[in-house]
Every structure is written in C-alpha cells, then in structure tokens.
Amino acid sequence: MASLTPQNAKPFSLASTWLRVLPKKSCANVTNLAKNAKKLGQDDPRRITHSFKVGLALTLVSMLFYVQPLYDSFGSSTMWAIMTVVVVMEFSVGATLGKGINRMLATLLGGSLGFGVQQLATLTEKEDHSIVIAFSLFIIGAIMTFVRFFPGVKAKYDYGFSIFILTFSLVSISSYRDDYIQILACKRLLTIIIGSFLAMIVSICIWPVWIGEDLHNLVASNIEKLGDFLEGLGEDYFDESDGTKTVTNKSFADKYETVLNSKTREETMANLAGWEACHGRFRFRHPWKQYLKVGNLTRKCAYKIEALDCYISNDPGNKIKDSCQYAGIESGKALKELSSAIKSMTWFSTTTKAHIANAKGAIKSLNSLVKENTREGIDVLEIVPILAVASLLTDVIISIQRISEAVDELASLAHFKMTTINVTKPLPLQREGTIQPIMFQDELLYNITSSTSPKQYEISSIALMIHSV
Amino acid sequence: MASLTPQNAKPFSLASTWLRVLPKKSCANVTNLAKNAKKLGQDDPRRITHSFKVGLALTLVSMLFYVQPLYDSFGSSTMWAIMTVVVVMEFSVGATLGKGINRMLATLLGGSLGFGVQQLATLTEKEDHSIVIAFSLFIIGAIMTFVRFFPGVKAKYDYGFSIFILTFSLVSISSYRDDYIQILACKRLLTIIIGSFLAMIVSICIWPVWIGEDLHNLVASNIEKLGDFLEGLGEDYFDESDGTKTVTNKSFADKYETVLNSKTREETMANLAGWEACHGRFRFRHPWKQYLKVGNLTRKCAYKIEALDCYISNDPGNKIKDSCQYAGIESGKALKELSSAIKSMTWFSTTTKAHIANAKGAIKSLNSLVKENTREGIDVLEIVPILAVASLLTDVIISIQRISEAVDELASLAHFKMTTINVTKPLPLQREGTIQPIMFQDELLYNITSSTSPKQYEISSIALMIHSV
C-alpha cells in the first residue's frame, strides 16, 4: 500500500485498489450500522415499537385519501392531516399530547386572528388590502416571535406559537387571493384535529411511553447509582489489601457522569409529563416539579462524590480506616432506601434516618480516632487523605439528608404509601459486627459491637443527630 | 377578605369584590409582563432584532402573493414558501442554515422517493395502487423513524428526516388522486427553496447571530467565572478578619450553577455552529468540537470548586493561611489568562504555566507549614479544614492544568496567534509582596518576597512542576 501515495500511483492501479478495498469497506460499514441499530433497539425496545406506531399512524391517515366519501368532504385539505400525524407523533405520550393540543389550539386562534385581519382589510380600499395585510403580518410576526422568548412560553408553548404565526400568515395572506378562505380554513382546522387525535390515540393506546414514568424512574435510578457507588467505595476500594484502586471503579465514574448532566433532560421530561393525565400509579396533577427538586439535590450530592472519587484516586497508597468504609456503606444504603422508596412509592423514613445516623456516627468515631493517634505522634501529612475523605463524606451525608427531606416532601405530595418500621432487629454490620438499636430514656440509640475490635459508637437520639446540622 | 370564603360569601358581594380586585390585578399583571419583556430585551437585545427580522421575512415572502407574475407561476404552492420562512427562521444563523439545508434536501429526496413509489404502483393493477402505497408508507415511515434515533442523525439531521417522511408521505399519497403530482412536487420544492433562501439571507445579512461566536464566548466566560470565584476566594473570603463568609459569595455559587449545567447547551451550540461557514475571526471548519472538550474540563474543575465552596461554608470559623489565599489567587489568574486567551484568540502559554506553578508552590509550602505546626503540638482537628481546602485546591490546580492543555490544543487547531512572553518584570503579589522570576542554572525560578512575613517559595523548574503530576 505504500506504493499508492499520490506521487507514484498510476490511475489504473489506484482504481483497482479502490475496487478491491471499497466492497470490504462498505461491507464493514453495513455490518457496523446493523450492529449500532441492534444496540439502539436492545437499549430501549420501545424505539422499535414507536417506529411501527408511526408507520401505522401514517397508513391509517392515508385512508382519508383512499376512502371516497372522506376525500370528497375534505379534498386537498386532507394533506394537513398527514402533515399533522408526521409532526405530532412523538416518542412519548406527553410530547404527543403537548404538540397535538398546541397545534389544534394554535390553528384555531391563528386562523381566527387571520380572518379578523381579512375583515379589517375589507374595510379599506381594494388597493390598500395588501398594505394592511403586510403591515399586520410584520407586527404580529414580530410580537409573537418575541413572546416565544419568555421562558414559561418556551418550555411548554413554543410549538404552539410557531403554529400560530404559521396559520395566521397563511390565512391572512391567502385571503388576498381566495374569497372562500373561511371554508378552507375550517377544513384545514378539521383535518388538523383529525390528524392530531389519530396521533394521540395511537400514541396512548398502543404500547404507550409515559414520559412521567420515565422521569420517575430516572430520578430513582440516579439516586441508586450514587448509592451503588458509595457502597462500592466500601466494598471494592477500601477492601483491597494493597490499597490500589480496582478497575471496576472506572465504570462508577462513567455511571455518574450521566447523573451529573441530567438537569436539562429532567426539566424537559417534567414539562412534557405535565401534559399527561393520570395513568398507572400516577394521579392527575402528580407533583412532577418536586422530582426536579430531588434531581437537583441528587446532582449536588453527585458533585461531592465526584470530589471524593478524585481524592481517592489521587492517593491510592494510604490505608483508610474501617469507619470510612462503614460510613460509605451506610450512606450508600440510605441512598438505595430513598431510591427504592421512590420506585415502589412506599415511604419508610425511619430506616433511611437510621442509616444516615449510622454514617454520621462512623465519621464521629473516625475523628476521635484521629485525635488519639496524633497524640501518639503520628505524622499528620500521612493521615491527610483520611481526613479529607472523612470531611468529604460528611458533606455527602449532609446532602443525602437533604435528598431525604425532598423525598419526604415528594412522598406527601404524591401520596406515597406511608409505612413505619419499628427497628428492633439488629442490623448486620459488614465485617465489623452488629448495630443493635436500643431504647434508652425514650431515645433510639445504636449500640455497635465490632467483631474485630470491640468499640461502641455512642449515638444519641436519631432526631438529635438529624437536626444537629 | 376573610369574609369571602366560599362558605359565607354572597354572590353579589363576591361579584363586586371581583369587580374591584380584577382591574387592579390585571393592571399588576400587565405591569409585570411589561417588566419581564423589558428584562428579556435588555438581557439580549438580539431578541428584539430577531423578532423584527422574522416580521420582515414574513412581509417579504408575502410579496410572492401580491405580485401577479410570481403568483401566476406558483399558484397555491406559494404557501409552502410562507410555511418554510416561519419554520426555518431561527434565532441563530447556524440553526437557520441547518434547518434550511435539511428542509431543501429532505424535500428533494423525499419527493423523489415518493415519485419512485408512484412509478412502482403504476406497474400493478389500478385496484392494488392503494395497497402498494399504504405498504410502502408503513415500511418507509417505520424505518425512517427508527433512523432518527441514531445519535449522529438526531444531533444534526433530525429535522431533515422528519421532513423526508412528510414529503414522501404527501407525494406518494397524493399520487393516488392527482396525476400532475410531478409538477406539483416540483413547484413545492421550488417554493421551499425560495422560502429557505429568503430566511437564510435575512438571517445572515441583517444583524446576524453567529452561534459559533456565542459558543466561543460561553466557553471563555465560563472559565472566567471560575477564575473570578477563585480570585474572590482569596480577596473576599479569606481576607475577612473575623473569618465569616461575606454575602457576595452567594452570588458566586449562583454564577457557577450555570457553568455546572452548560453541557447540553454547549453540545447543541457546537452542532449548530457546524452549519456556519467562515465568519469574522472563525475560519471554515473551525474546531468547534474542541470547545466541548474545554467545556467538559471546565465543568470538572467547577465540580471541584463546588466541593471547595461547600467546605469553606461549612467551616467559616477557621483561619486559613496565606498560602491558601495565594494559591486561590494564582489559580484564578491562570483561569483568567486562559479565558482571555480564548477571547482574544491569542495564546501565551508561559504566563498561565507560571501562575499554575505559583499556585502549586503555595500548596507545597502550606504542607510544610502544617508539618512544622503539628510538631509543635497543635490540635490536628483544628487544622483539618485547612488541610481539606489545601487538598481540594490541589485538585482544582490539576484540573486547571488539564484545561490549559486543552486550550493549548484548541490554540493550535484554531490557529490562535502564538506569543511568547519573556517574564522578566516581577509580577505583583496582592497584599503579600512580589514574585520575582529569576533564571538559575537555565531554570526559571520564582522568588516570592512577602511584605508581611518574609519567606521564599522554592519552586524548581516550571516544566518539572507541570509534568510532575
């Protein structure tokens, strides 16, 4: 192949090489494409069903053309029904409903205003019609375009305003040439309504994709991912006898990369979910905005964990104490409790609080451990990483507490099932012993007995712990 | 007003109250709306000019209706030109070009395929026409909808695929009813080209909004915001004699909230900027993707700073040493150098590297300071916050270095002006003295003299410092 540089290649040999290489290359490309397509379908099979749904909706709407009586009543306006189906049919029910409703209302209002302008134009001389129409087109076009910049409008009604300008322009300009503009506009509105309803019915009735449910699951799974990472912090990382970081940790970092950048996605989903009426476990006016609050707090927690992760990877040589590991496991469990509470829509606040309290207790005991050690003359700089991890973990625990409060609020707003668990059985403490909840002077205490080195975490009341920050 | 609860309110008094309250309320609403509109316009005056541009484009395209010879040649197909202007006319040049080109190509290809299906249908019996058309509609609709899920297609050609399905459906279905479909399809294509070009010309020629320039400025200003914060860390926060956090810091947190969540926005902008040809300082094929790399590293740096900020706000009572302040100021300066390098498209790598080296030196001296202090028997837990801030600052400095490398790459890809500055004048050191760059055995050293407490930072060669991590 080195002989085929542009300097010495003869046209014939170049062509023959291309002829040999091209089929292989295009074959590889096709295989690659097929692999990608398969992966897309496997990642979310609803993509395949959605594609068939669009095909079905198109075939259904084409019936308006084939069936003579239907075509007789609408004529060439039927094409608006086809356009509507193509444009309105979105992946999720919320997006389809939002676009359909926006399109129908905007066509009605834009058409009415266009008709009003036509009436206004007829009050003037015939020669001035075009001036009145052009002037109103300029003014209404400019004003409506500016209104689209309002954040509230942009989020939910952007498409509607675009269709409003479109219909207004079409109706008002057509009125200059066509005297039967009212009939035409009515037919257009009617076919757009038919197309919108067809798209909405197909979207809702055949394998519906509820974006609200997706948002619900996304928020819960983001929390779960962080919980997995924190638990893994204890199990995978600290447990390595030589202290080096395992390769699996890399995938944790990748995992919460999606958590860190989910804000825009969550906001779009919450806006679209607002269009969906009650479905499945979700009632009408489900508090979708509260999910954004939980999502924001989850991201803040993820920023802390990101810092924690970098810290650990920068100093892999240091031995981190049991308490750090325990705090990581307990805060991971707290997050997983929160995630499963959202997923199952059942709220046990007590167990989450117990895990948070345990994690805090571990950090507290770590601090006193450090104090003792340094009195014995250990080099401070050697325990700096431990201290840094401990202080970052404290931050993580505080932000978990904030997530817990937001989930609590969500639970009451969204009418989660409320369950109180009486913690009487000892919780198993990994590798270290057990935590025994005990009642002492009306306060719930945790008595932690370690199998390796007997020590007691004196944690006062959970309530006190949780409100002390 | 307490008497107007639904239980005891009489219809008459309720109505009169409404009559009294409503005008005031709507008056307040209108004032509020006007205020919001004014703010929207002031925040970005290009919103107002864009609105007028849309109005102008609509008025211009309506001329196709008023001018008899033009209307004679296109007839009712003229409405496609209006639709095209409304839909294609976007805020930025990139978005308008992208939509226009997508729309024209998709109409051409979709129409051709639709015509092909019509030809295929004519090969069959007349009664089977509708079956062939309906079947191809289902298959092509489903396949093209699935293709829209490919990430590469979704990012740049989603609109084109939607228009492809639309045109294909319209042409193939219409062919069932209309034998002159080719002429109609050609007219439609022609008016769509006219509308697209009109929108693109208005978008480019009248106060153009180049999204590439916006991306360029966004990336630079995000880096600058972080620099401001780090400099402020030294000046505003640490400098307070009582150590409490000043109120202005709250606004810093708000400022980099937008930095943290800019990923989606930057990606959209880079995709749209790809449609823009050379303009102003930007050549054809400007490396927009490299801005995403710089942006990603900026966000990673912001995560670290977020952790730093929380740490500081959690422990406001502790005195933080001079070195921390100095490291903050120097890393802030490094970021601001990077930001102004991007803004001015002129790259001085030496000064940035000097600031980074200075910041590292400050952290180094801090560590030795801590070592000395603890030997003297100071309580470790009291200096934990200092240690944590120092370790987080180290992380921040490392990520600034990565940003610097990415900007270096950007500078060579985008052909920034390269300038080497010979650092011979002493850099002023705020509140503390001066940094004197000195040459010692072919290595650039920085001699820092403090006005308050004389001390020397021994920093070996910058190159060594920068490659040691």
Automatic annotation (TrEMBL), chains A, B:
It is found in: Membrane. The keyword Cell inner membrane does not apply. Its main location: membrane. Belongs to the aromatic acid exporter (TC 2.A.85) family. InterPro entries: ALMT. This is Aluminum-activated malate transporter. PANTHER family: ALUMINUM-ACTIVATED MALATE TRANSPORTER 10. It comes from the Eukaryota. It is a multi-pass membrane protein. The keyword Transcription does not apply. Keywords: Ion channel, Ion transport, Membrane, Transmembrane, Transmembrane helix, Transport. The chain crosses the membrane at residues 48-67, 79-98, 131-151, 157-177, 189-210. It holds the Pfam family ALMT. One of its GO terms (cellular component) is membrane. One of its GO terms (biological process) is malate transport.
